[in-house]
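User: Let's play a game. I give you a shape written as tokens, and you guess the letters that built it. Ready? Here's round one.
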């Protein structure tokens, strides 16, 4: 397994260009199942998760072409409505094929996605909502089986805002008979972007991006051309890295409107953030102030930025309290930061008290999930000495060319291939 080696201490300086958002590209690709024709998608990030979902769609019979950052998917050749365990276990977001398959073909058999390092990751809200749309849903031998002559519109309430749950049901409802109203929907920018994509295919969706979404079912959706929105979490990751190394970095091709919470919290640390239409300039200060963080559904501070912020707080002036409210086990990065000399204490499982120290020390550490790996890279960039991070396949799932992008802004970073 590859490793990343970082010699810490360099200030990051220069420009970094943000790729398309993983968490927008995945539902976009799933939505092509709804179309009996070809869909073209540009600005697709080059990630393991994208390769995984394209493999899954090919397994369903769809023709997929992926060159550079352009994907062409032909949903007219789909002839299989079963998503096997081997494909689903590699990537939980495979659950996003469930709604589109039932909506278009009236049947789907999808492996239950397992949990992952950050939590159990249940899909009960997806299934409850699908049943509200009239599907017969059962779970046997680790598979979800869902069938419906034709889905029928319904009033649906999510007990908690679920991003892929909202996306799955919004896609399913586009072909249902009648009107569906989703209440307590997730409001992430990726959901608004998906609704715009579905409407460009001929769907009739209103209210996406707010907590109440109305979908009027139509008979069929048609081919269209899509472009993936910028990755707000990738942008946030480079912003925190710039702050952590007291650097001066321009982050290009991002959408500042999607990262308001991150900008505000970073400014609270004393970091300077200048905002333009499609870029940000982040200038670090010698000693950042400690700030408290509480993760919340969008537009609250994103859980996907918690690990990166914790790394920054390990060298802040003072102590900060980090409260993770979305996932039950999203502090796995803390143990690795402790090995680098950080002063972190976890209580009740979802509170982390971080007391700032002078400097982290480079060490051999291990990535455990996607955003934890980004946190460890940031820690390595600011540590004294060399840090070696193993299991970087976690990072390759969600960060496009991360060491190349960090190299371009002055990091002393290299990938050691384990052949
Ligand atoms: C999406 O995951 C993102 N993934 C995650 O990003 C992100 O961390 C998460 O939303 C929260 O923002 C994609 O978009 C592909 P949820 P998702 O359903 O949809 C509970 C990354 O790093 N819940 O919004 O799986 C759940 O346990 C990844 O890019 C149920 O109880 O998350 C959690 O506590 C990690 N039952 C809360 O809701 C359900 O049926 C929010 O989860 C569904 C969710």
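Assistant: Ready! My guess for every position:
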């Amino acid at each position: 397994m590859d490793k990343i080696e970082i010699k810490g201490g360099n200030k990051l300086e220069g420009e970094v260009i943000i790729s398309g958002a993983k968490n927008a590209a995945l539902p976009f690709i799933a939505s092509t199942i709804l179309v009996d024709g070809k869909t073209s998608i540009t600005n697709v990030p080059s990630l393991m998760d994208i390769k995984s979902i394209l493999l899954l769609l090919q397994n369903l019979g769809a023709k997929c072409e992926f060159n550079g950052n352009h994907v062409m998917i032909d949903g007219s050749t789909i002839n299989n409505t079963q998503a096997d365990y081997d494909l689903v276990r590699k990537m939980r977001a495979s659950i996003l094929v469930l709604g589109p398959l039932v909506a278009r073909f009236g049947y789907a058999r999808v492996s239950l996605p397992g949990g992952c390092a950050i939590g159990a990751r249940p899909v009960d809200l997806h299934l409850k909502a699908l049943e509200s749309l009239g599907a017969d849903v059962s779970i046997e031998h680790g598979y979800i089986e869902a069938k419906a002559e034709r889905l029928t519109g319904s009033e649906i309430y999510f007990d908690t805002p679920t991003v892929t749950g909202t996306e799955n049901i919004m896609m399913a409802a586009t072909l249902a008979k009648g009107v569906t109203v989703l209440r307590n929907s997730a409001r992430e920018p990726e959901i608004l972007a998906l609704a715009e994509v579905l409407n460009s295919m001929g769907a009739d969706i209103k209210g996406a991006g707010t907590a109440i979404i109305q979908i009027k079912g139509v008979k069929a959706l048609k081919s269209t051309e899509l472009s993936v929105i910028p990755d707000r979490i990738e942008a946030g990751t480079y912003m925190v890295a710039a702050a952590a190394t007291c650097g001066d970095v321009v982050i290009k091709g991002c959408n500042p409107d999607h990262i308001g919470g991150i900008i505000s919290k970073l400014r609270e640390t004393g970091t300077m953030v200048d905002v333009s239409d499609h870029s940000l300039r982040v200038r670090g200060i010698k000693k950042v102030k400690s700030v408290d963080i509480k993760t919340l559904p969008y537009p609250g501070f994103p859980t996907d930025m918690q690990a990166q912020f914790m790394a920054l707080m390990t060298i802040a002036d003072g102590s900060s309290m980090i409260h993770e409210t979305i996932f039950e086990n999203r502090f796995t990065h803390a143990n690795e930061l402790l090995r680098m000399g950080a002063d972190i204490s976890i209580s009740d499982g979802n509170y982390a008290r971080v007391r700032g120290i002078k400097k982290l020390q480079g060490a051999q550490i291990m990535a455990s999930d996607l955003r934890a790996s980004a946190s460890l890279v940031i820690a390595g960039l600011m540590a004294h000495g060399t840090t070696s991070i193993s299991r970087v396949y976690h990072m390759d799932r969600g960060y496009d060319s991360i060491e190349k992008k960090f190299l371009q802004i002055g990091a002393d970073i290299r990938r050691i291939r384990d052949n």
